[in-house]
Specification:
The complex is a heterotrimer of chains A (654), B (314) and C (144). In chain A, a hairpin with a 2-residue loop joins strand 22 and strand 23. By secondary structure, chain A is an alpha/beta fold. Chain A has 18 helices and 32 strands. In chain A, 28% of the residues lie in helices and 23% in strands. Chain A has 4 domains: 129 residues, Rossmann fold, CATH 3.40.50; 178 residues, FAD/NAD(P)-binding domain (3-Layer(bba) Sandwich); 164 residues, 3-Layer(bba) Sandwich (FAD/NAD(P)-binding domain); 60 residues, 2-Layer Sandwich (Alpha-Beta Plaits), CATH 3.30.70. Chain A has a 5-stranded parallel beta sheet with strand order 10-7-6-16-27. A 5-stranded parallel beta sheet of chain A has the order 18-25-19-20-21. With 314 residues, chain B is α/β, with parallel strands linked by helices. Chain B has 2 domains: 259 residues, no CATH class; 39 residues, no CATH class. Chain B is built from 12 helices and 9 strands. By secondary structure, chain C is of the alpha/beta class. Chain C has 4 helices and 4 strands, in the order E-H-E-H-E-H-E-H. In chain C, helix 3 links the parallel strand 3 and strand 4. Classes of the chains: A alpha/beta (654), B alpha/beta (314), C alpha/beta (144). Chains A and B meet through helix 16 and helix 18 of A and loops of B.
């Protein structure tokens, strides 16, 4: 064995507090080290060439580079040794910068530490084995989960790029939250007028296969080769026959069904089409309210339907789709009004949430776009908006900012004035967060042109007095208590993750944070990737964000998928587990603990059962290796013997 | 005894193999007995000297078998089933309710290692005839230590049951009192205790070989350089390493059948280490080995929120 | 046992590549000064840490062993730290049974952005080990 050791000065970054010459000298004393040297910047081109030349000149078969973190330059040096015809896994790095020279001042101790750490790397590299990647084919189809604006954008961009797309939406129509909005800030564009055409594009695009009112049941496989099971939930209406005429909805005698689309601001019918622009525009029965399901008789819709589309016996259906990549765009949920009892949420009818107010403002909403308060249908004269309801409140477990409430409050206040010129709006706020393009100007316009009164402070209590709601709070800028007699109170309720976010994450094997939002691969540099290769994120499922940010992420995720699919084959990472069938005793404990389902039972020709790793599925965590009692399954490049070699080398120090 | 043989015959007709006991080279040593022919049934016995946990043979048996188990042994079967090491349909279990077995070592010491020529049991006393004399002992004084704290004298899983159910008055706390007492000693005393005990180890691996849950058999990492967890050196640290390997690999798996301790030729209390871990498994995961077929061994599963594991502060 | 003030003790740390190793890098980039005793072994995941590595380190001469992974829920491999938590907790409770002070073994969670937390973990843990002094497991000697 002929190991070459290259100690980097990193200018003065390392050499300033580590005696690199002494480290190099000490390494020469280790049996098997054939060459040891230092260089001022090993990662530079001449530095890399030095390694390449030395490999050839001294016939080195293993290389240790002691420099910065391997997270920084491991790939650089792997490529360098490969140029000298050495397998790239014959390289090890010792981190003597981030872990030594930058965190200790004592040169003597630093040098001793560096000697130990480089010796440990030498011990490990002596146990390294050459590894080779294998290539595998991929299915060039993409699954998009969620048909909100982010998911639609991703689906359309992928389809434009020539990919077949499977789009799964859990509610009966695509459109998501944006379809519920009246106008969008800061341009006061009609939301559905800009979203509607996109929804139609999705419906008409031949490359997009839409599963509405469907959910992800199961995900198997790995990047390039996923098998997804989709649950098509029973709608009790045959959508092949339904024309969306709406006759059933008109005649349905069950008139008090909860309206999910309108966030319960007004009831809907047990059979309904959620909104006029719905795509697909098909009816669906809510069995929790349908008289036929509750009492066993009614059948009005079945009688009236001109195409005989009603099917009370319909069952959920499972379908399978093969895809090569997955874009998750499942969006967000909102805290319900009942979570704010201090504001009378759930108790006073005229305390509503921002999204409910949005529906009241909307021309296709339950009031036809006329601002009428829920209790008595009167036009409000005084409207109070309260920001940060739940958000930035550690006491309810939501320390984060919900991102877009400041902006929609300003928008809704402006719209209120447009609808009702005599009205007066008040906004209780903590801070005004308006960092986007044209955003700050917008909130100023609300105050300066529309006369919205912004009061910096929290509301302490809301209670009724006659037909009015008395809003009491503090004005912290003036240092006084204020009291507003309101006709309507709108709460900017916190954005939360979907209740089933964790369940879906576990099916997809992606990480989620304490709040249920999905975690990107890197907060700055890999914002739409996840740690599961082949799964990408778009929109508010990753954290609260507004429409332009969601659309950008949708496009970004699509471009990631298109880049991935521009290759005909994918290369697998060879740092995966391997079972030595001669050692495996077939206890299958590894099979039970593998988080990726990457290990299966295999019967050898002599009838013995052993474990076998599916290389393309294995993610390289090594849980199996620490589970296996007999050391039969070894994670390549992090084998027991490689780690033990480091431990023994550590112990031989001093 | 008639009942035993009848049951074995019945099971044998179905399996063509029944693993049981027969008398060994003298009256105080039983030995495992593989009944593969009808004529061998006659030799089968069950008495106070049937000490072995016969389940040790099962995981690598390639055929269906009948097996005799005492209460303690039956937990091994449940553990095997939890871990998927055997299939239920591959075993026919003849359970025996047990009043305890004799610690042959204790008996041998009492009779000063003289050859035993005859034994007769009468109620709570036992008469032992050796080449030079005959002596009588109280049964309880010769009972194996594990039987004195036995909580499961009746098999927990069986297809056929022999004997009247035996009642145990031993509670969990009583069974683990020895561990709690030991833990009251200062750290230094514990280290010196194990230094002395493990120092005696001759690395014969008898404890491991007798253990029914040591499923690695000849591939044990204590005897290989790949992976190189320990060397064959006789240093104390390597002996410690071996015993740690044994204990850690049995974490949440040891059913406390005590075969390791019975097999140890130098008298190391090997079972203590496993009992300690079992105590922790109960405390951390409310898990007891070999009780419920549907339980999951705690080291091979997890909860996102562990109720009992608190973050450690420095 | 008298100690020279500058004398180091033998401390080894097993750090998962994705979180804690990154956290130690972050501490380095931020120049958060730390005691020098610790030597780091990079592993892909805390779930890769066999409790026997910890035992081996102690028996080979370590005075302290540290394992650090991603915070629960943040594991790069989704479940690795959950397995680690159970197995390492088991070990932490087993060590004192053999007379090895459980404070010599610490396992914790440090994310890639928690450079300051890493500095604190290293500093505190090193202090604890110095407080306990060297670990001796030798025939005839009786020091825990």
């Amino acid at each position: 064995m002929r190991v070459g050791v290259f100690i980097c000065h990193c200018g003065n970054n390392i050499a300033g507090t580590v005696d690199v010459q002494k480290v190099a000298e000490e390494m020469r004393k280790i049996p098997g080290v054939a060459y040891s040297t230092t260089y001022v910047y090993t990662c530079s081109e001449p530095g890399q060439n030095e390694i390449i030349e030395a490999i050839k000149k001294y016939k080195l078969d293993r290389v240790v580079v002691a420099a910065c973190s391997p997270r920084m330059h491991e790939l650089t040096f792997r490529k360098a040794v490969e140029k000298a015809s050495l397998n790239r896994y014959f390289l090890e790095m010792a981190n003597i910068r981030e872990h030594i020279s930058w965190v200790g001042d004592d040169k003597e101790l630093n040098t001793q530490k560096a000697i130990d750490v480089v010796r440990m790397a030498v011990a490990k590299v002596m146990n390294n084995k050459p590894l080779f990647s294998s290539s595998f084919k991929l299915t060039k189809r993409v699954l998009v989960i969620g048909g909100g604006v982010a998911g639609m954008q991703a689906a359309l961009d992928c389809a434009d790029g020539g990919l077949d797309v499977v789009l799964v939406e859990k509610s009966p129509s695509i459109g998501g939250m944006m379809a519920r909005l009246d106008k969008t800030f800061p341009t006061i564009d009609c939301s559905i007028c800009i979203l509607g055409p996109k929804m139609v594009d999705v419906a008409q695009n031949e490359r997009i296969k839409l599963y509405a009112y469907s959910e992800i049941e199961d995900v198997k496989g790995y990047i390039g080769n996923y098998e997804v099971t989709i649950r098509k939930k029973a709608t009790y209406v045959d959508w092949n026959k339904c024309t969306g005429c709406g006759l059933c909805m008109e005649k349905c005698p069950s008139k008090n069904a909860y309206d999910y689309f309108n966030f319960g601001i007004a009831p809907t019918r047990a059979i309904n089409i959620p909104f006029p622009q719905a795509i697909p525009k098909k009816a669906k029965i809510d069995p929790n309210y349908c008289r036929y399901f509750l009492k066993g008789k009614c059948g009005v819709c079945a009688k009236i339907c001109p195409t005989k589309a009603i099917d009370y016996d319909m069952k959920d259906e499972l379908v399978k789709e093969d895809v090569g990549a997955i874009i998750v765009a499942t969006g967000y949920s909102l805290m319900g009004v009942e979570n704010f009892p201090e504001y009378g949420g759930g108790k006073y009818k005229d305390v509503i949430t921002g999204i409910q107010y949005e529906r009241i403002l909307n021309a296709s909403g339950p009031t036809g776009g006329h601002i009428k308060r829920p209790s008595d249908g009167k036009e409000p004269e005084t409207v109070v908006f309260i920001s940060c309801c739940g958000s930035r409140d550690k006491s309810v477990g939501i320390p984060y900012c919900s991102n877009f409430c400041c902006m929609y409050i300003a928008k809704q206040a402006i719209l209120t004035k447009d609808h009702l010129p005599k009205s007066q709006s008040y906004v209780f706020y903590m801070d005004i967060r308006a960092p986007g393009k044209g955003y700050d100007e917008f909130t100023r316009r609300a105050q300066e042109e529309y006369g919205v009164r912004y009061i910096r402070g929290r509301v302490s209590k809301i209670y009724p007095r006659g037909e009015k709601l008395i809003v009491r709070g503090a004005d912290t800028l003036l240092g006084i208590q204020v009291e507003v007699e309101a006709d309507l109170v709108v709460l900017a309720n916190a954005v939360i993750s979907n209740p089933d976010a964790a369940k879906l994450a576990e099916k997809l094997r992606i990480s989620y944070d304490t709040f249920g939002f999905y975690v990107e691969s890197h907060p700055k540099l890999r914002p739409v990737e996840t740690n599961t290769s082949g799964v990408f994120l778009a929109g508010a499922c990753q954290g609260p964000k507004d429409i332009p940010a969601s659309v950008s992420q949708g496009s970004a995720a699509a471009s990631k998928v298109l880049a991935l699919f521009s290759k005909d084959v994918l290369e697998s990472d060879p740092q995966v587990s391997y079972v030595n069938p001669n050692v495996c005793v077939g206890c299958m404990k590894c099979v039970k603990t593998c988080p990726f389902g990457a290990i299966k039972e295999e019967e050898l020709r002599d009838g013995r059962k052993v474990a076998k790793v599916i290389e393309t599925v294995c993610a390289g965590c090594g849980i199996c290796t620490s589970t296996c009692p007999c050391g039969a399954i070894q994670l390549q490049h992090f084998t027991d013997n490689q780690i033990l070699a480091e431990v023994y080398a550590f112990a031989s120090g001093k | 005894m008639v009942e035993l043989k009848e049951k074995i015959s019945e099971v044998f007709r179905d399996t063509n193999l029944v693993i049981c006991w027969r008398e060994g080279f003298d009256p105080i040593h039983a030995t495992p007995h593989f009944v593969r022919e009808e004529s061998q049934i006659e030799d089968s016995i069950f008495n106070l000297f049937c000490v072995h946990n016969l389940c040790v043979y099962l995981p690598f048996l390639k055929e269906k078998a009948g097996i005799l188990v005492k209460g303690c042994d039956s937990r091994t079967l449940i553990q095997f089933l939890q871990e998927g090491l055997i299939r239920r349909e591959d075993v026919v279990i003849i359970g025996i309710s047990c009043r305890g077995i004799i610690d042959v070592g204790k008996l041998m010491r009492e009779v000063l290692y003289e050859a035993v020529t005859g034994v007769s049991i009468d109620g709570d006393s036992i008469k032992v005839k050796t080449v030079s004399r005959e002596r009588e002992f109280q049964l309880t004084s010769l009972l194996a230590d594990k039987c004195k704290i036995c909580r499961y004298p009746n098999p927990l899983i069986y297809d056929h049951l022999i004997g009247e159910p035996v009642e145990s008055k031993v509670s969990w706390d009583m069974a683990y009192e020895d561990i709690r007492e030991f833990e009251k000693k200062p750290l230094e005393d514990r280290l010196s205790f194990w230094t002395k005990e493990i120092g005696k180890c001759i690395r014969c691996y008898a404890c491991r070989n007798a253990c029914p849950l040591c499923i690695c058999r000849d591939r044990c990492i204590a005897e290989t350089r790949d992976p190189h967890f320990t060397s064959q050196s006789v240093e104390l640290k390597e002996k410690f390493m071996f015993h740690f390997i044994h204990a850690v690999h049995l974490a949440g798996r040891c059913v406390e059948c005590g075969e390791c301790e019975r097999a140890c030729p130098v008298g190391i209390p090997v079972k203590m280490m496993k009992k300690k871990i079992n105590l922790e498994m109960k405390e951390l995961f409310d898990y007891e080995t070999g009780i419920n077929v549907d339980d999951k061994p705690p080291m091979y599963t997890f909860k996102a929120e562990e109720e009992k594991i608190k973050e450690h502060e420095l | 046992m008298p100690q020279e003030s500058k004398k180091e003790l033998r401390i080894i740390g097993f750090l998962c590549n994705w979180c804690s190793y990154g956290g130690a890098d972050t501490a380095g980039v931020s120049r958060f000064k730390q005691p020098t005793d610790l030597r780091i072994v990079r592993v892909p995941c805390s779930g890769r840490v066999d409790p026997l590595f910890v035992v081996r380190a102690f028996l080979s001469g370590a005075d302290g062993v540290l394992v650090s992974g991603c915070h629960p829920r943040d594991c790069h491999y989704s479940d690795g730290n959950y397995y680690a938590r159970r197995r390492l907790e088991m070990l932490k409770r087993l060590l004192p049974f053999f007379g090895i002070d459980d404070r010599r073994f610490h396992y914790t969670w440090v994310s890639a952005s928690e450079g300051e937390r890493w500095q604190r973990v290293v500093t505190e843990f090193t202090k604890v080990i110095h407080g306990l002094g060297p670990l001796k497991i030798e025939e005839g000697e009786e020091i825990g």
